[in-house]
What does this fold into?
Amino acid sequence: MTEVRTERIGSTLLITIDRPQARNAVNAAVAAQLAAALDELESDPTLRAGVLTGAENTFSAGMDLKAALKGESPDIPGRGFGGLTEAELAKPLIAAVEGFAMGGGFELALGCDLIVAAEDATFGLPEVKRGLIAAGGGVIRLPQRIPHHLAMEFLLTGEPVTGRRAGELGLVNRVTPAGDAAAVAVGLAEKLAENAPLALAAVKKIVRAADPKAAQREEIKKLMQSKDVREGMTAFAERRAPKWTGE
It folds into this structure.
């Protein structure tokens, strides 16, 4: 059964979690298929960025508790919850959030590089209400994204906020009218795709590195030897759009 759908839009891969009957909750099948979709994004040189969303106006309700009670794991070894939260992707990934992004669903969004959210979307980490913690990256990532005390309110109360409030907190990049998140996210992905793919990958690698300065030195050394950096400089001098090859 197809639980995760993919669609190519220009140079963007739109990835949709398609379990609306379960509010797009993540079970073992979703995790495996989402990991496969991300592999498709990474391996295809014609794809420059991805957008992750959910079917029927719901991003994801998080871990499928019924499946978990049956012994199913929503984690992929080495890649984390949903095959995403610990994955080291070279290409940009944007979350397009409509409806609920709760628990693990919120953590999937936090695992993306950018977030676009409908104003009436709902973000929350309610794990403490169930005797758990947001262990799919929420406890670690959220305090890195917003001020400490606001992150602690999320994590300690388990109470949700709207997409509009998430925008006010600086948690999301764009706030859209209901129903427009995916379209805006795809437009943003296509904007990113105008830039050099090796440079985008280098930015991501440096940002997540344990020693950013050392990673930056290594990445700029590689970039200066690339065909794309010469193309970028030549295109600027010739006043034309660059033609990136990823080499």
Remarks:
- The mean pLDDT is 94.
- Residues 141 and 169 are 14 Å apart (CA to CA).
